[in-house]
TrEMBL record:
Species: Rhizophagus irregularis (strain DAOM 197198w)
Superkingdom, taxonomy of origin: Eukaryota
SUPFAM superfamilies named among the record's database cross-references: Cytochrome P450
Protein known as: Sterol 14-demethylase
Cofactor(s) named in the record: heme
UniProt KW keywords: Heme, Iron, Metal-binding, Methyltransferase, Monooxygenase, Oxidoreductase, Transferase
Pfam family, one: p450
Length: 492
């Protein structure tokens, strides 16, 4: 027993020393000093990143390194960002990779092994297909948002308290997204909606548990996560991919047969599944491949949009003083434009106050440091500072807004009128070459959702206080894990 402990400790110390020795001799940004070896800055960062990063910046400038979870990470601050390095991180995709960094925390490669292979083609196809048809999809998405909201929130004749908003919103938003991705027919099946929503909900554990094991040896947490999946101890993908594949196969088969049968008079379904099918020879369509393409969209769209909507609800529930003003705007839009309860696509741009409120919420709910990129090869910034391959860079986003950055001013973006517009001081959707191509789809869905709930309900936080939604550390994701209650009651 004692021998095993001694041997284990020797092995650990050897590995630790070897690891440290292997670290290359580059002119890296300054490493912030720390007291405790191995632990480094982990707890300072984890417990209060906002305060801690501010101190680091004051002492070390706008680009510095921290030793967190057993690894050195580079924080690229916004002042530097505005000049050159930020542009470098966002534009040099031969060096900085968002998806690879995400894959370290969230083992996509073992959950859905071919998904990373299809990722490079996705943004372009999405732009040419879904994102250029937002107007065409507007009515049916809106309808699905309203029906699904009714299903999950109900009438609220008596006031109801919801403590698990993120989960409910994930289910609501899965409905319109499934509708335009897999089509009207298959998205009616509860099984399909569950696959869209629950895969993300069940996979959250990989993002919410801090990488404690990395303190023992960098990468150990990632290794253990992957082993669990490979051994089948916990694999949410198996459960959710199978039913979705079954529905894709059914639909592909049906469409091919009907097209063959009806020829030119066949009515082409308008959805992304059809777009994807048309990329291939009809005799050579691989349904598992289509499933991976669809999973990529599930990854990119559902979790992100659900977080954003949850934040907007929490933000308004925390500040009921803005409810009346937003209600009046939505009522006007509704009265002037609705046909059978559905508003036209163009009416989205009449929701100026709501748009600004959404943008302000998104601005203030990004993590203080985030948009992690994995460095694919040693890199020298244009100021001469260097970072090694396999290092993670995080953008230090805090205070990106110059004018009263911490203050929530819901109508400060009225002149912009497009919550999805990317500017240097609004980084929720990234920046540069890989700026989120789905941002308008996301904002449209948020607006449809908020238009409906503002008209139907009054809502406020149970605590009657402001429920903070800002992300902290690398792993604490307050909105997903939040138990902040919100009271909904029918508007009379
Ligand atoms: C509020 C919701 C959303 C947020 C906050 C968000 C945020 C982001 C961010 C920060 C990036 C990385 C940008 C970069 O590398 O600099 C990104 C990329 C991406 N997003 Fe979104 N996103 C959202 C919704 C969506 C939706 C609805 C879709 C639809 C499918 C989508 C599809 C994508 C894709 C395909 C990429 C990769 C782009 C590329 O690599 O060129 N996103 N998103």
């Amino acid at each position: 027993m004692y021998q095993a402990i001694i041997l284990g400790s020797l092995l650990f110390i050897t590995l630790y020393i070897l690891k440290r020795k292997r670290e290359p001799e580059l002119t890296m940004p300054p490493l912030v000093s720390y007291k405790f070896p191995i632990i480094g800055h982990t707890f300072d960062f984890f417990l209060n990143p906002e305060k801690f990063l501010k101190q680091c910046r004051e002492e070390y400038g706008d680009i510095f390194c921290l030793y967190i979870w057993g690894q050195v990470r580079v924080f690229v601050g916004i002042e530097i960002a505005r000049k050159e390095h930020f542009g470098e991180v966002y534009s040099r995709d031969d060096v900085f990779d968002v998806l690879k960094a995400f894959n370290k925390r969230f083992p996509i490669d073992v959950l859905c092994p071919d998904l990373l292979k299809v990722s490079p083609v996705a943004p372009k196809t999405l732009k040419d297909t879904i994102f250029s048809k937002l107007k065409l999809y507007s009515d049916r998405m809106q309808k699905r948002v309203y029906l699904s909201t009714q299903k999950h929130f109900g009438d609220c004749d008596e006031s109801k308290i919801f403590y698990n908003l993120f989960e409910i919103v994930t289910k609501i938003i899965s409905d319109p997204i499934a509708n335009i991705i897999i089509g009207e027919e298959e998205s009616q099946h509860e099984e399909v909606l569950n696959s869209f929503a629950n895969f993300i909900i069940d996979s959250m554990i990989f993002l919410t548990i801090p990488p404690f094991l990395d303190i023992i040896y960098p990468g150990l947490q990632e290794y253990v996560n992957r082993i669990q999946i490979r051994l089948g101890l916990y694999n949410p993908a198996v459960k959710h991919r199978k039913p979705l594949l079954k529905h894709i196969e059914k639909q592909v088969c049906k469409r091919l047969q009907e097209k063959e049968k009806y020829g030119d008079s066949w009515k082409r379904p308008d959805d992304h599944l059809q777009d994807l099918m048309e990329e291939h020879d009809p005799n050579n369509i691989s349904c598992p491949y289509l499933l991976d393409r669809i999973y990529l969209i599930i990854f990119a769209s559902i979790h992100t949009t659900a977080i954003a909507i949850t934040n907007v609800i929490l933000s308004l529930a925390s500040r009921p003083e803005y409810m009346q003003e937003l209600y009046e705007e939505q009522l006007k839009v509704h009265k002037e434009t609705n046909v059978n309860g559905i508003i036209p696509f163009e009416a989205l741009s009449d929701m100026k106050k709501l748009d600004s409120f959404i943008r302000e919420t998104l601005r203030l709910s990004v993590n203080v440091a985030g948009i992690d990129h994995l460095v694919k090869k040693d890199y020298t910034f244009s100021n001469g500072l260097q970072i090694p391959k396999n290092c993670i860079t995080s953008i230090y986003i805090d205070d990106v807004y110059r004018d009263e950055p911490k203050s929530f001013e819901p109508f400060r973006h009225l002149d912009i009128n497009v919550a999805s517009k990317v500017t240097k001081n609004f980084l929720t959707f990234g920046n540069g070459k890989h700026t989120c191509p789905g941002r308008q789809l996301a904002v449209n869905n948020i607006k449809f959702f908020m238009h409906n709930v503002i008209l139907k309900y009054n809502f406020r936080t149970v605590s009657s206080k402001i429920e903070e939604s800002r992300g902290t550390g690398f792993t604490a994701l307050p909105v997903e894990t939040s138990t902040a209650g919100v009271i909904f009651e029918k508007r009379v």
